[in-house]
Write a structure and sequence with these properties.
The complex is a heterodimer.
Chain A (H helix, E strand, L loop, with lengths): L1 E3 L4 E5 L6 H14 L5 E6 L3 E6 L6 H14 L10 E8 L7 H8 L3 H10 L2 E6 L6 E4 L14 E4 L3 E5 L2 E4 L4 E3 L2 E5 L20 E7 L5
Parallel strand pairs in A: 5-13
Antiparallel strand pairs in A: 1-2, 2-4, 3-4, 5-12, 6-7, 6-13, 7-10, 8-11, 9-10, 9-12
Chain B lengths: L1 E6 L2 E5 L19 H10 L8 E5 L3 E5 L3 E7 L2 E5 L2 E4 L2 E5 L4 E6 L5 E6 L3 E2 L24 E4 L27 E6 L8 H9 L3 E2 L7 E5 L14 E2 L4 E3 L7 E3 L6 E2 L3 E5 L4 H5 L9 E4 L2 H10 L2
Parallel strand pairs in B: 13-21
Antiparallel strand pairs in B: 1-4, 1-12, 2-3, 3-10, 4-9, 5-8, 5-10, 6-7, 6-9, 11-12, 13-20, 14-15, 15-18, 16-19, 17-18, 17-20
The chains are: A alpha+beta, B mainly beta.
Amino acid sequence: MLKPLGDSALLIQLGDEIDSVINQRVHALNALLQHTNGVLETIPAYCTLLVHYDSLNFSFSQIKSLIQENINQADESIYKTPRRLEIPVRYGGASGTDLETVAVSKGISPADVIRIHSEREYTVYMMGFTPGFPYLGMLDERLSMPRLESPRTLVKAGSVAIAGSQTGIYPLDSPGGWHLIGWTPLKLFDPDNEFPFLFSPGDVVKFIPIEDEHA
Amino acid sequence: MLEVLDVSGLVTFQDSGRRGWQSYGVPVSGPMDWFAYRAANTLLKNSPDAVAIEIGLGEAVFQAKRDCVLAVTGAGFDVENYVWTFPLWTSFYVRAGWRVHVKKTGRGNWAYLAIAGGFETQSILGSKSAYLRGGLGSAIRAGDVLISREPAVELPKLAARDFPVEKYVKYDQSPVIEVITGPQADRFTKEGLQTFYNGEFTLSKTFDRMGYRLEGNSISHADGADLISEGMTMGSVQVPASGQPIVMMADSPTTGGYPKIANVIRADLPLLAQCEAGVSKIRFQETTVEKAQRKLAALQ
């Protein structure tokens, strides 16, 4: 369950599937470990937590037993209430060029895609890819699409996209292989801000459809 | 103050890295060769995390706008200062108006130019390291005027100091790089593991600060190359479906979705970083966490 990743990090495996309960445990353990001696930085992911530790002052076995104590102490009380965010999204049109394609390939209408995508709440399972990119799950199976065969070289910042059982939002203009169904005017990453991120791992997110002002 | 007269390749400001934001997807960045970077600052009695210029995959020419002391470290370069030419790992006095050329002359990829006092540039998320893919900081270009802080020590006392690099790191284009077995080593066949540990690899020409793609015999997976994305670090060796390993480097994404066969130890990252595309012959050898930590401590 605890394995070294090099000489200064270790990987804690809490499961081997994309699952909301496992992911909740990841975020709960992550919160606990922020106050553990020797822990420098952590990276929560779907079912793992990577811990960077001070390897000049803590041996692998020392840090392992400190973490083990935390895992043993962890109980229901550590599950904190997540932050909830509402994200306005302009679906379709130039902002979501793949909305029609998704609808056609799933045999439903674009309005159905919007309804299904915006009616449930998602959890920020992890962040990665580019600064501020939230991996949100779980997407309704009715919208499940494989990634694009060849990624687009430029996806504009704010694009709301889906792939597999995930949905996400591109924080920066970047390449991208997901299907673009909408766009949010919110800024996900603003390096000029002291706290530059809109999302944090573990947040709960709901999409709110907004009208295209040019419609 | 230095004016940049000419640059080629990838020239950026780097400090010891951007820490504390990896859970938000922000890579650590920092130097590709941490040992050379730190030694450049040591030579000038700068703080160990002072901002230096990383010169990679090209060259750079500067002109001093006022007297200063510089140090250049790394592998594969010489320094031309006014009328002199000399090797790296030394500090030197530069008078206002003199030209300093960090010139590619040998094997290696990265040089670090530090200035007494350290360079001054914008801090983003607590670090002055450029992370170009993420839009943090920018590349250094011809015409830029680079500002430095006032050094705490008188300049003449900082010049003409040598760093005994060979006592610590032996840069080599045929290195044996030590690794710790990866968390997904069991996702490879016995033959796949043998290929990795007994084979010889070279660096592919398509490499950058994000990762080093290696070329060699294909490493076989036991049950496919898909992995639920999880955290990784500089030195993580991912093996995608192609069977050709990728060693994640300074600008590594924080998470990745390929099985990690091994992880290069921090003490050996400088050796790997200076391996050249097509030329280098890289071998891997397994070690333990305990030994790797001792080796790292010996470099402090």
